[in-house]
Amino acid sequence: MQEKDKPRELDAGAVALSGQLGKTILRLRKAYNLSLSELAEQSGVAKSIISQIERNETNPTLATIWRLSQALDVSIERFLVSSDEEPFIEKSSKGDTPILVSDDGKMRLAIIGWLKTVEWLQWYDVQADPGGTLDSDAHQRGSVENLSVISGTFEVEVGGITETARAGESLRYRCDRQHIIRCVGTEPGHATMVVILKAAVME
Fold first, then answer.
1. Average pLDDT, whole number, for the chain?
2. Burial state string for 115-144 with b = 16 or more CB within 10 A and e = fewer than 16
3. In a domain, 184, yes or no
């Protein structure tokens, strides 16, 4: 997705997420007494990219966040949780909503759930361009993902099985193994996704 094509709201949300990530990565890197070069070597993420993230100059992909979280020995969820106390009633605008972007740049996940619950419950507003793909690694054993399609057509592949859902349909599937979501057809896709982590182990 070209920068000029991004809606202003997505840019603002991306900045909100990147700024939070940047501060967290910088704090952890200093806590571990790592130089930019050392963190780059351990994570496989280019030194220049890490520097840009810390300065809030780029919106990292999910793969980049994952590599940095592994190198810093902290969960992705911890990266996303704010240390500030949240008000009892919280209102978020589109511009305040953090956005995650798939590696191909064609799928955008707005974090519409409460950041304090991300370790066990996550929910997202998913906007996808035709052909967009989100390839995710396994979550904790027993975790379940729910994809409810609002418009367009999505397919989910888990364990060699692929199922398709259109507007008004939902797919629920185990996400404790690699799972792939694709926006198929010629139309953009819109869906909500709820992820229940650390659920009861399913046999």
1. 80
2. beebbeebbbbbbbbeebbbbbeebeebbb
3. yes
